[in-house]
Amino acid sequence: MRTLKLTIQYLGTRYQGWQVQPHRLTVQGILEEALGRLLQEPVRVVGAGRTDSGVHARGQVASLVTGSSIPLRGILLGANGLLPADIRIMAVEEAPAGFHARHDSISKDYAYRFSTNGVLSPFLSPTVHALRGTLEITKMAEAAAHFLGDQDLCAFCGPEGRLKKTRRTVTVSEIRPEPEGVWAYWVAANGFLQHLVRTIVGTLFEVGRGRLDAAAIPAILESKDRRRAGATASPEGLTLEHVHYPGELGILATPEGV
């Protein structure tokens, strides 16, 4: 048996999230169907992050165990030939036995992209949240910095997230400019909770609109009260950018590689 690590990109617009759900179109479900056809065996794909409905990924990672002897390059090209155009496997690696995409990850990077431009390019609109009006980006950046460090993030996650331990270590929390008038909120942490990034962003929007003081963030964190944070921002702006692991995982096949 072989353990494989897959690096996957997808536009989440038409999917009900990553995780398999009965009678719902999901990224995991589509991947398992395509890989099962290719490998000629039942396939269970484990993702590093369970992205929500409408959320995208540039660097989702998944693991699977297979008895197939198809070379890495054959798996890469064969699977992509069976997948829809909005899901692509970008790399396939041989991983150590027991590798688990979710349990073995040490941190993840997310970016939430937004723009207040009156006209947003159709090449950007699937992955950028368009807002009306203006935002005080400096104030938003000031507020974002309050999330850094070891934090109890209970006030910023959905109901399913609050059923779990809600303390996380946030190593990046900042607003960055991007081309064509787009801004991105980047956040990296050793773990994420349901709706966490989108709720942080919704709260930052309140700061940017002058409805909430940036200095209020520590008190909201301390309160653990979801009602004191902002609304959950819409999903189209959110992308899982990268999943980090302790080391490299061996032989690699990419579209330009093996």
Quick summary:
The protein has helices spanning 27-39, 72-82, 137-144, 196-208, 217-223, and strands at residues 2-10, 46-47, 56-66, 87-95, 107-115, 129-130, 149-152, 167-178, 182-189, 238-244, 252-253. With 258 residues, the chain is an alpha+beta fold.
- According to CATH, the homologous superfamily of the largest domain is Pseudouridine synthase I, catalytic domain, C-terminal subdomain
How many domains, in number, for the residues? 2
Instruction: Report helical residue fraction.
Output: 10-25%
How many H/I helical runs?
A: 5
Question: What's the SSE pattern?
Answer: EHEEHEEEHEEEHHEE
| Low confidence ranges | none
Structural class given helices, strands, pairing?
alpha+beta
CATH class of the largest domain: Alpha Beta
Describe the structure.
The structure is a single chain. This protein is an alpha+beta fold and 258 residues long. The protein folds into two domains: 2-104, Pseudouridine synthase I, catalytic domain, N-terminal subdomain (Alpha-Beta Plaits, 2-Layer Sandwich), CATH 3.30.70; 107-241, 2-Layer Sandwich (Alpha-Beta Plaits). The protein is built from five helices and eleven strands, in the order E-H-E-E-H-E-E-E-H-E-E-E-H-H-E-E. Strands 1, 2, 3, 4, 5, 6, 7, 8, 9, 10 and 11 form an eleven-stranded mixed beta sheet that branches. A hairpin with a 3-residue loop joins strand 8 and strand 9.
